[in-house]
Amino acid sequence: xxxxxxxxxxxxxxxxGGLAAVNGVSVDLWQGRIQAVIGPNGAGKSTLTNLLSGDxxxxxxxxxxxxxxxxxxxxxxxxRQGLGRSYQKTNIFLPFTVRENVRxxxxxxxxxxxxxxxxxxxxxxxxxxxxATRARWERAIELSGLQNRLxxxxxxxxxxxxxQLEIAMTLATEPRxxxxxxxxxxxxxxxxxxxxxLLQRLKAAxxxxxxxxxxxxxxxxxxxxxxxxxxEVIAGGAPAAVRANAQVQAAxxxxx
Length: 256
Ligand SMILES: Nc1ncnc2c1ncn2[C@@H]1O[C@H](COP(=O)(O)OP(=O)(O)OP(=O)(O)O)[C@@H](O)[C@H]1O
What we know:
This protein is of the alpha/beta class. Helices cover 39% and strands 23% of the residues. The strands form two sheets. The protein has a six-stranded mixed β-sheet, with helices on both faces. A four-stranded antiparallel β-sheet has the order 2-1-4-5, with helices on one face. It is globular, with a radius of gyration of 19 Å. The relative contact order is 0.18. It holds the Pfam family BCA_ABC_TP_C.
């Protein structure tokens, strides 16, 4: 394991008018570890994810990514700094094939270059860039286990495969930090098992934060568990210790 977290949030806060949706939360994400965040509806889990990805600007606190302060950066800049996220609401283009979706995600990472009059140079650069992009999307498809579904239309594959595709699209930008918002939502047991195996495969090379309601998966996957209620962290630590915490049982797990 690395000797410093890849992502570190300190006292991160987001207010919506009078409501502190996330209030002074600190999170460290380490390569080779999965950090799960659980909590009842409205606890602030999605808002926290949006703060870490730059989709929302914090009202307070600091954010570091890869050793660099990125507080207040927008989502695109943070993504270029090595963060990838999946969304609860899917980003997939349903009429396109699996391959096209992942290729587009890989291309989206390319910085848009201004027109260059030195055409030979641009062609050389483009050929080089295209090879790099291709290597990225091919690797993302392989990692996510979708090699046999390359030419399938995204709208026609199963719900579980669509979630795999969404993870492949996230991986196509080669992030070191992965934020996954309910990757198991709406899945049957067999599909959930496939995604759990995928996340276990991705763990060594990434720092991961997983927001998930499926407690079986959380306890299989998580190295560290954070429990949020009303925008605040009420408990954090090894999953077994957190499960035994009376406050957590009363606030959340007891409701299951
Ligand atoms: N854009 C917004 N404007 C105003 N209030 C918001 C906004 N986004 C979230 N909230 C409020 O912030 C609180 C936390 O919401 P959030 O969606 O982060 O919770 P959550 O833990 O992700 O819930 P769920 O499990 O249902 O997704 C809620 O009270 C919600 O109504």
